Task: structure prediction
Amino acid sequence: MSDHDYKPKSKVGQWFNDRLPLLTLANHLTDYPTPKNLNYWWTFGGILTFCLITQIITGLTLAMHYIAHADMAFESVEHIMRDVNYGWLIRYIHANGASMFFLAVYIHIFRSLFYGSYKSPREIIWILGIIIYLLMMAAAFMGYVLPWGQMSFWGATVITNLFSAIPLVGEGIVTWLWGGYSVDNPTLTRFFTLHYLIPFLILGLVVLHIWALHVPGNNNPVGIDIKKPSKDTVPFHPYIVIKDGFALLMFMIVFAFFVFYTPNILGHADNYIEANPMVTPAHIVPEWYLLPFYAILRSVPDKLLGVVAMLSAILILAALPWLDTSKIRSAVFRPLYKQFYWILVADVLILGYVGAMPAEGLYLLIARVATAYYFLHFLVILPVLGFKERTLPVPLSITEPILGGSPNLAAARHRESKTK
Amino acid sequence: MSDKKPKRREFLFTATTAVGAVGAAAVVWPMVDQMNPDASVKALASTEVDVSSVKPGNTITVLWRGKPVFIRRRTKEEIEEARSVKMEELIHPEKDEDRAKNPEWLVMVGVCTHLGCVPLNDKGDYNGWFCPCHGSHYDTSGRIRKGPAPWNMEVPKYEFVNANTIKIG
Result:
């Protein structure tokens, strides 16, 4: 991508650019050659950037009115909702924004899984993405603690107690995290600090994520390497900018629907009751975006192994580029993988559903089967599939099947029969 | 270059790195330790409770170090039930005699040893406590009998200051 002999037109531009090549960067971003067959599943990178910026701006404004103290946090949130001008709007955007952020990131991740975007040479982009995802979960969890409602308090208690599963040092680590013998004011103030910090760490990682992306360039629905720039690419601006912009607009309609029509549907009523260390709510459930992992945690009857299983479920994703042994990226040309992909999607949705249900009887059984399948998919099915699967022939370029005037499959078969 | 010079360099590198590492660790420790419980938190380490009004079969809950502590005045049946259990049946074997020195009074931290929820009184399959979060059942001695919790509910350090007052911590 060091293709730059760019020279600004104006003298002032040249003078500036020789000293700080910002204009070269801007030019790289506008001209950046993008595969011309990118579909709407590729617009979620832009949508996620929008989500991050939205969370940072609304978060900064909320921090101007919020008080991080165990005695005042709950009231200050009510103060934001009732007294601060447009406080209700800013808080509802921030709270629903977290859910929208996760909705977008799950689509982004599953797009990557379908089209094999995590494979060589894009492993670093993928791993940076997993780190961003982990930080997002940490930020979301700590943000949920800040209103200091019942779910905040008991969610914080349960999640921090996960660390007590560590042999020998577990209890010490939990006390250290709390700054006391239970979740209390010291816990709240440090969570507020970290909740404020993490989005900026994510922002830095997003820059690296995009930088790493711009080295090999985008993957595409066909999943083949393409020449850049060529007939197979279009410049980022205006083509992708317009497409991303339109998708963002559609996304904002969904976002606005939640904010203005059902702002509390994704939350829990219990969180409008102030934190009480003496009473645990009858049914503790994490936010919807953490439910699949919560189901995995509860499906294992042993405390330590449950925590290990839950963490492995996330960290196994980082090893994905090496677990998937297939050389073909896109599921379009992998008839078997395509089926297993949809089974995995269903499996994760089922885990999410049973994660919200009480861990007993049939729900527990389903959770156990779904957990086993989740690991089976990554540890057995993917590695084996790469060797066993008969993939379909891939086109030589994005334009070939179109300009050839025949569907790719027929063209490829034709080619094959000629060589025989 | 002579043989001696690189060795001298190596020594200097090693010595510098070692001193630097010790210095860095000395700076990191205060940054880590500041997160541990502070003096004001530790100062609240003990609580005295008047238990004269607690009737047999009742439990009161008091706050100690930010955590609920259950003080239960057990009935004869409950004591009998707790003491007749065979050790082999227990997940975390502890004698009731060791958990409740004065059999009538059971004092324990009311926190589930699984993930820290507060179990509910007089519930569950063993007539003791039941944790609503992930379904752990405790018996009349607060010992784990069924569910994901690994240990019995913790018995804190406590003593009877006089017949009616318990000092926890």
Q: What stands out?
A: Chain B has a mean pLDDT of 88. The CA atoms of residues 13 and 74 of chain B lie 69 Å apart. The longest strand of chain B covers residues 67-73.
